[in-house]
Amino acid sequence: xxxxDEDTITQAVLARLADTPDxxxxxxVRGLVRxxxxxxxxxxxxxxxxxxxIRFLTATGHKCDDRRQEFIxxxxxxxxxxxxxxxxxRKPSGCTEAxxxxxxxxxxxxxxxxxxxVANGAKGEPCEVSCTVRGLAGExxxxxxxxxxxxxxxxxxxxxxxxxxQPQGRGVLRSDESGRFRFRTVVAQAYPIPDDGPVxxxxxxxxxxxxxxxxxxFMIQARGYETLVTHVFRxxxxxxDSDAVFGVRESLVGDWVRQGDGTWRLDFDFVLNxxxxx
Length: 278
Ligand code: BEZ
Ligand code: FE
Prior knowledge:
Strand order of the largest sheet: 3-2-7-8-9
Distance between the termini: 46 Å
Number of domains: 2
CATH superfamily of the largest domain: Aromatic compound dioxygenase
Structural class: alpha+beta
Largest sheet: 5 strands, mixed
Shape: globular
CATH topology of the largest domain: Protocatechuate 3,4-Dioxygenase, subunit A
Bound molecules: benzoic acid, fe (iii) ion
Strand content: 15-25%
């Protein structure tokens, strides 16, 4: 195995993987090598460009900490996160579609009673959200655990404010006997994903904007059903067709309606897929 050249090196690397004990690891690393080599050949990667790529990935790692995951952001803006969601969340028609999880979910958010105000002081126009959780046959899903989280009127999540001592715009609710749950909050607004790191540099270098259309995040878990991670997007938002992370689905667009008293209301119904028997 000497004198390898650009025509023989890929096979040589693949051969070196022959003894990988775990078949799935073998499949993934083989695929990665084949596609990486093919990519380098296709674009005729120069050594300077290779080094720039290494520096970019290094900077991406340096930007990560407990509150910031720049690699996930990179995956998001390259469409890899949404591709993975699409491949792993094929559901029968009629089920609510899934979309990206995003980096702003927080484990252990406060639990709220039905109808409570999850804004908890977040800035924005008041809004009431009323939802149902059902199965495909229309059966109400009682006792589902619903995590909601959202940005405020300035397009920021609570975790993006230094020194905020209480969760705002997030909470955990439970559906009642008829599968219903309600909460009060503030109207979601469009916001730019964090673009002060290497991912922002990549967006600017490729002439892209960092904006996501206004949305509410939901994660719905119920016994006997597949967990649903999704958003409801705001109808009419200017970024619905150019979401920085490719997460919009037509079926997830909801109508925030202004009420006579000036407040807003959103009604949205979720349909869960039955869990596959183990
Ligand atoms: C979000 O919706 O919270 C989000 C998703 C992907 C990247 C950044 C933010
Ligand atoms: Fe979000």
